[in-house]
Amino acid sequence: MRANTIIMIILAGVFGVLAVVLANMWLANQRSAMAKPGDLPRDTIVVAAVPLKFGDSLSDDKLREIPWPAGAVPAGAFKTSKDLLAGEGTKQALQAIGVNEPVLASKITGPGQRATLSAVLTEGMKAVSIRVNDVLGVAGFVFPGDRVDVLLTRTVRSSDGPDKSFVDVLLQSVKVLAVDQVADESKDSPTVVKAVTVEVSTKDAQKLTLAAGAGQLSLALRQAAASKGETTERVTLSDLTGDTPEDVAKRQAELERQKAAEVAAAEERKRADDKLNGLAQAVERVGDQIDQLSKVKPTVAPAPQPQEVIKEVVKYVKPEPPARATIGVFRGVRLETYDVPRQR
Prior knowledge:
Layout: H1 3-35, E1 42-48, E2 63-69, H2 81-84, H3 117-120, E3 126-131, E4 147-156, E5 164-179, E6 195-200, H4 202-214, E7 216-221, E8 235-236, H5 237-241, H6 245-295, E9 324-331, E10 334-341
Antiparallel strand pairs: 1-2, 3-6, 4-5, 4-7, 5-6, 5-8, 9-10
């Protein structure tokens, strides 16, 4: 090993040890400076002694006072529990507050005021509920305090072509106030919901109400830190496949033709089934008639009665000989006949 390399290693080790020693000395000085009570002005602040959730009533046993740097007191904080609980009626938490977290005026209700959505609404804003399901509600992963985009899906009927479907981004970065009837932001388990309540302006509330009847509303969950809007554009069926409107029209026409052919085939099958059913019923009727005939007992004809046989006797009667007879006499070659009486 070269001498220069050995020297560099030794110097690196020396400087490393020196840096560690200096860092420890600086940290010790800082700790001693912070430990001196008289150096920084101190004040008190009210924090939560136990975990608080939406709607919990505030009392002395749930609060405590801790020292706090006077120049770093948060806006809306209370110095004493007495100041926080002052006024007639109990106060309630409007959102989840962890242990040792400062209790601010924006996180609790006024004296005697109930912990409702109206208490957490920003000035000039309105609360509007949207009907969703297990899919449109981002599978139940939307919680109070999240921000979402509201999407509107519509289908417009066209007189000169197929129906046109498209999706628009109706509203962006909308704050979710409650899911179903739960407004507790500490809720962390996904649940299938039927409605989501959002905080919007008056005009946006009108848009949501009108859009609920014009098409189907769905939610798109935004990143927690992404509160700014972005440029959006309408998405149509042609954007999904890259087809032109003419291609979409041809495909729609082909689908309708196939549907008509399927309907015609179904009707033909129904007619054939009706004929087969008719033949089956006819065969069944003939079978029933054969069964009925086989059950009928055959009739036996009565035996013939003996009848009297009358025998007819024929007696031969010899006829009487004629009274005259004809006699022929040849005279030469000529025949002469004579009628003479017969002698008895």
